[in-house]
Design goal:
- The complex is a heterotrimer.
- Chain A is of the alpha+beta class.
- Chain A contains eleven helices and eight strands.
- Chain A has two domains: 259 residues, MetI-like fold, CATH 1.10.3720.10; 68 residues, no CATH class.
- Chain A has a four-stranded antiparallel beta sheet.
- Chain A starts with 15 loop residues before the first helix and ends in a 5-residue tail after the last helix.
- By secondary structure, chain B is α/β, with parallel strands linked by helices.
- Chain B has two domains: 193 residues, 3-Layer(aba) Sandwich (D-Maltodextrin-Binding Protein, domain 2), CATH 3.40.190; 96 residues, D-Maltodextrin-Binding Protein, domain 2.
- In chain B, β2 and β3 form a beta hairpin.
- In chain B, α3 crosses α9 and α3 packs antiparallel against α12.
- In chain B, 57% of the residues are buried.
- By secondary structure, chain C is mostly helical.
- Chain C folds into two domains: 225 residues, MetI-like fold; 47 residues.
- Helices cover 68% and strands 0% of the residues of chain C.
- The radius of gyration of chain C is 28 Å and the shape is globular.
- The termini of chain C are far apart.
- Classes of the chains: A alpha+beta, B alpha/beta, C mainly alpha.
Chain lengths: 392, 341, 368
């Protein structure tokens, strides 16, 4: 009788478990060593060069002015406040950019699928042109070539004596709220609550009886009508402050500076080209059978788009759309190239230079962008979970 | 097996490097000598101070300072590599060691000398901040600038002075800060801003870059002191001394009447001061750890302060700036260098 | 007498359905809304195109050497581009050495041409591609930087389209393999490796490229031992490559996730190790799936090269931007930017078209 052939025990390093542990330990050690290496070098360099470190500088006075700030700011404010101003400027341009790019992008995406040959072609030309040209170049184009061609303040384009367009920007009338405007706002709030209740009631009624209620028109009537009535009753507590030419510049009113306008234009137009492609792909991903089924149930084409196609398309659209929003936010940092006071330009630029604390400033800036990215992804993931297909 | 071995070796090497890296701190001068050239930070295009022509050759007073240092260290003024830097990048680049010396119309201030870990080696140009406006505006004084839009370079002392000045005079200010001086000038020209503010010397330099220089005037007010000079990092005194003295040598040379043309003849001079400076007598040059005649080489290859000033920003250039504060101390100016002794 | 039934010959289809008129009706005037839209668009085109044409072609100045040549015409002054053309292409690369740049580009075109000819067998293509990948960077490096008897040209003298192509080329060749490794790491079963890769990817995807470039260009020496330093261009290259590698990793991960589990299991059942399984079974399928994504990342990288302007490298955009501030040539920003846009557009559009055709060709049999 022959003994069973006992296979030689494989050497321990061929054991997958041991291998896995070893790999990870090595990777961790290498990472930690690398981190330590950078850290000690930096420490040594900072000490050798006698560069100040720490975050104390945030409370010392900045001493320079900023062209655009959403929060009160003057040259006497601290570097910390510069950070806030810069952060809000970044958020402002990103938020506006996201809204505008979404609107434009959806429009062009739908136009791309239009049955009208001319419109579809135009949309295609738009997409292929703008997404293949670097954003920085587009910013430069708007800023240095287009907006620089605007007239001087004295020769401003006069838009109905209320708004003025010149090389210094677009000057708009600013609303001046007087006492009593609070009532208008309060009624608006009440109207909003009423509308919500109405929507809920209408939905329940539809569930039970199948009858529909014109929610949209009724809601709009509530939202617009009620505040208007109060506005009239309280004696129009709102005035418009018109911009006026005084000395060198227009004063009063709101101004959209060309730095922001060109950044916004470029960001919107560039990102809209990508969003349009995403929207097109999303709509095309919904099978044509859905449309046909919807039609055969007697649902009209508007409702088919709104109730059948879009909800399904959104599932495909949301994840890449989120990426575009993130890209837009990060791309807003190109503001530095044209002097719009955003986070990179004002904080990681001017403050860094005035204080000389490069590491702190860059770390703060990167941390802000990272948090914005993570936050937007988080929100979009939550939304995505809501609209995601419930699989059984 | 092999892979694990390599990885362990790499990790061990990384750990070793960490300790080695922390322990090692070399001398700047040795490192530069070994490298064979000087890394000099200059401005990104300012005629008269540092300006790259279409072939990428640099010219200007700030550039010549670096050339002088190269002549001192290597005996060859060409052994410099110039790095154009924006105002925003310059100090970080110097702090980090990206460049050895920054010669980029940088203002000497207390905080830069202390908290930012830098050392100013001297003053190449005594300057003050001024305003450049279009004649059409009809402004005669800076006090009339209330409500004006002002273009300024981001991250400069100019930006701070500007705010101070408008605050002190209770005027409303709308500043636009650009990274590059070119963009400020372009904006002034296009009418995006009413006023361009900067050191006066820069205003003259910017003006000749405009399409119609004649349409613009520099206002009479000088609102600040701007001593501009080369900067090095803290912590390397030998290197600091050389950069400092490269400039002093040029000033001393002008005072003694030594020029790049006559330096060889001057070596025969009987004047002991001149003999010491040119390394004919004594070994003052060696004290710096350099060749004994390095000062003569600097003068020969780059010239004395007057020559440098004249050919870059003075009467021999397009800028035609008066010597003014930058004349020698014995001619009513502020340029004064310690003796070679 | 039986009457023979002769079918009436077919009527021609109504003119309103076929032919150009039918096409117009179907595609442009199918409904009142469409008619309105069509007319509106036509009107917009009519007011937009003639001035555009007049500016770019009809009234433009093409010949001459100074700006005065452009005074006579109201259109674009292409002389500006002509005069600066060499600068836009080579930057500050010394005149006498520019043939080296031309040779480098020519070499790539000639050696890579067979890859794009369909009749060349795949075996040869693969070998050629590997050969190019191995040899070309070295040859190009020597040709461009100098040494071996050639005059040394500092990287600070590189500029224009040359620099743009160098950054884009190096970025692409580095980002793809790095991205694949990162994607594999992210999909790894080992928690430590996975965490490391996820952190790395999310970090790079979360920050703007210009902060990365700023860090690599002026702050890097702070993190290194006192006497260690790299070339400025090299640092920008590392920054761009790492940044794009993170994006590439996410694209490749998408492909990896789309490969059915059965493929992994089958490979494991055949006794293939991790690298063989990935290299021979999974990656070829995964990469093929995500070709559009990869090319999109390449295009993004190509466009992102323009950001090196902010750290003072003279790429194409910076050269153009710089030329527009030249006092002798003020006022020609539009011409400059239009030219730069056209160059970038050509490259990016070309890449996207090529990827589409590649995608079609590689669609082997899985089409349902």
């Amino acid at each position: 009788m022959t003994t069973d052939h006992v296979p030689a025990k494989p050497p321990f390093w061929n054991n997958p478990q041991i291998r896995a542990v070893a790999f990870q330990v090595v990777a961790l050690i290498a990472t930690v060593a690398f981190g330590l290496y950078i850290f000690t070098n930096t420490q040594a360099n900072l000490q050798r060069l006698g560069i100040a470190s720490g975050f104390d500088f945030l409370s010392s006075p900045a001493g320079f002015d900023i062209i655009q700030s959403l929060v009160p700011y003057s040259a006497a404010s601290s570097y910390g406040q510069v950070f806030l101003v810069a952060l809000f400027n970044t958020l402002l341009v990103s938020a506006l950019g996201i809204i505008l790019a979404t609107l434009l992008g959806f429009g062009i995406g739908v136009a791309r699928l239009s049955k009208n040959w001319l419109i579809a072609r135009l949309a295609l030309v738009y997409i292929e042109t703008f997404r293949n040209i670097p954003l920085l170049l587009q910013i430069f184009f708007w800023y240095f070539a287009v907006l620089r061609a605007m007239p001087s303040p004295r020769q401003s384009l006069n838009l109905g004596d209320a708004a003025f367009l010149n090389i210094r920007g677009l000057y708009l009338p600013a609303p001046q709220f007087e006492a009593g405007f609070g009532w208008v706002l309060a009624t608006l709030g009440i109207a909003a609550i009423l509308t919500t209740l109405l929507v809920r009631w209408a939905r329940q009624r539809q569930m039970v009886t199948g009858q529909q209620f014109p929610v949209v028109s009724a809601g709009l009537a509530l939202l617009i009508g009620l505040p208007l009535v109060t506005f009239w009753l309280t004696g129009s507590p709102l005035h418009w402050q018109l911009p006026e030419l005084q000395g060198f510049n227009f004063r009063g009113g709101w101004v959209i500076i060309p730095e922001m306008a060109s950044l916004l234009l470029a960001l919107t137009i560039y990102t809209a080209a990508f969003i349009a492609e995403i929207v097109r792909a999303g709509i095309q991903a919904v099978s044509h059978g859905q449309t046909e089924a919807s039609f055969s149930l007697g649902i009209n084409s508007g409702k088919t788009l709104r109730l059948i196609i879009l909800p399904q398309a959104l599932r495909v659209i949301i994840p890449p759309l989120t990426n575009q929003y993130l890209n837009l936010t990060k791309n807003s940092s190109l503001a530095a190239a044209i002097g719009y006071p955003d986070l990179v330009s004002s904080f990681a630029g001017t403050v860094l230079n005035q204080t000389g604390q490069a590491i702190e400033c860059i770390v703060i800036t990167m941390a802000v962008y990272l948090s914005i990215s993570l936050l937007i992804s988080l929100l979009m993931n939550l939304y995505n979970r809501r609209v995601a297909l419930v699989e059984r | 097996m092999n892979r694990i071995k390599t990885l362990t070796a790499v990790a061990a090497a990384a750990v070793l490097l960490t300790t080695a890296g922390a322990a090692y701190a070399g001398k700047a001068l040795d490192a530069i000598k070994e490298r064979g050239f000087i890394k000099c930070g200059v401005s990104d295009g300012l005629p008269g101070f540092s300006y790259a022509d279409e072939k990428g050759n640099y010219n200007g007073i700030d550039v010549d300072v670096c050339r002088a240092v190269a002549a001192a260290v290597f005996g060859d003024a060409a052994k410099v590599k110039f790095t154009p830097l924006t105002a925003k990048e310059r100090l970080t680049a110097l702090q980090s060691g990206e460049i050895d010396v920054l010669s980029r119309n940088t203002t000497w201030t207390s905080s830069r000398d202390s908290a930012q870990g830098l050392n100013f080696t001297g003053v190449t140009y005594y300057d003050g901040q001024g305003f450049l406006v279009n004649k059409k505006l009809g402004v005669k004084s800076a006090k009339q600038l209330d409500g004006a839009t002002v273009c300024v370079q981001a991250g400069t002392t100019t930006e701070l002075n500007l705010s101070d000045y408008f605050r002190a005079n209770k005027m409303k200010l709308t500043p636009i800060s650009y990274d590059k001086s070119d963009e400020s000038a372009k904006s002034l020209e296009a009418g995006r801003c009413d006023v361009l503010t900067s050191d006066q010397s820069q205003l003259y330099a910017q003006r000749i870059k405009l399409a119609k220089p004649g349409d613009y005037i520099v206002l009479p007010e000088v609102i600040s002191k701007e001593p501009l000079g080369p900067v090095v990092r803290h912590g390397d005194d030998e290197w600091f001394d050389i950069v400092k003295w490269a400039l002093f040598v040029m000033v001393n040379a002008e005072e003694m009447g030594i020029t790049s043309k006559n330096v060889e003849e001057m070596k025969k001079s009987a004047n002991p001061d001149i003999k010491r400076l040119l390394g004919v007598e004594g070994d003052k040059g060696k004290d710096f750890g350099l060749a004994n005649d390095w000062m003569a080489v600097v003068i020969k290859q780059v010239g004395n302060y007057g020559e440098v000033f004249n050919r870059n920003v003075g009467a021999g250039s397009d800028l035609k700036i008066e010597r003014g504060l930058n004349a020698l101390w014995n001619q009513g100016g502020l340029q004064y260098a310690p003796p070679v002794r | 007498m039986a009457e023979a039934r002769i079918p009436h010959p077919d009527l021609p289809p109504p003119v309103s359905i076929v032919g150009p008129i039918g096409w117009l009706r179907r595609n442009l005037f199918s409904s009142p809304l469409n008619i309105l839209l069509t007319l509106l668009t036509l009107y917009l085109l009519v007011i937009a195109i003639p001035p555009l044409l007049r500016w770019t072609v009809l009234n433009a100045t093409w010949s001459g050497d100074t700006r005065d040549a452009c005074q006579a015409n109201s259109g674009a002054c292409w002389v500006f581009i002509r005069v600066h053309f060499d600068q836009f292409m080579y930057g500050f690369y010394p005149d006498a050495q520019r043939w080296r740049v031309d040779l480098t580009v020519l070499l790539l075109i000639v050696s890579a041409a067979p890859l794009f000819i369909r009749r060349v067998p795949n075996q040869i293509k693969l070998r050629l591609a590997l050969g190019i990948l191995a040899c070309y960077p070295i040859i190009a490096f020597i040709l461009l930087t100098g040494g071996f008897g050639l005059a040394v040209v500092e990287t600070s003298q590189w500029g224009g389209l040359l620099l743009t192509l160098v950054i884009a080329g190096v970025g692409m060749t580095a980002a793809l393999p790095l991205g694949v490794l990162l994607a594999l790491g992210r999909r790894s079963q080992l928690p430590a490796i996975q965490t490391l890769c996820v952190t790395f990817i999310e970090f790079w995807r979360g920050v703007p490229l210009i902060t990365v470039l700023f860090m690599s260009s002026v702050m890097l020496p702070l993190f290194l031992p006192a006497d260690m330093s790299f070339d400025k261009l090299l640092r920008a290259l590392i920054g761009v490559s790492l940044f794009q590698a993170a994006y590439m990793a996410e694209v490749v991960r998408g492909g990896l996730q789309a490969i059915p589990k059965g493929q992994f299991e089958a490979a494991a059942a055949l006794g293939l190790g991790f690298w063989k399984m990935m290299g021979l079974i999974v990656l070829p399928q995964a990469l093929k799936l995500v070709i559009p994504g990869i090319v999109n990342t390449f295009i993004a990288l190509f466009k992102d090269t323009s950001l090196v302007l902010i750290i003072g490298l003279f790429d194409l955009l910076n050269m153009v931007h710089n030329a527009t501030t030249n006092p002798a040539w003020l006022g020609f920003s539009t011409e400059g930017y239009v030219f730069a846009a056209a160059v970038y557009w050509l490259f990016c559009f070309g890449m996207s078209r090529y990827s589409q055709s590649l995608e079609k060709r590689l669609h082997t049999g899985h089409k349902r």
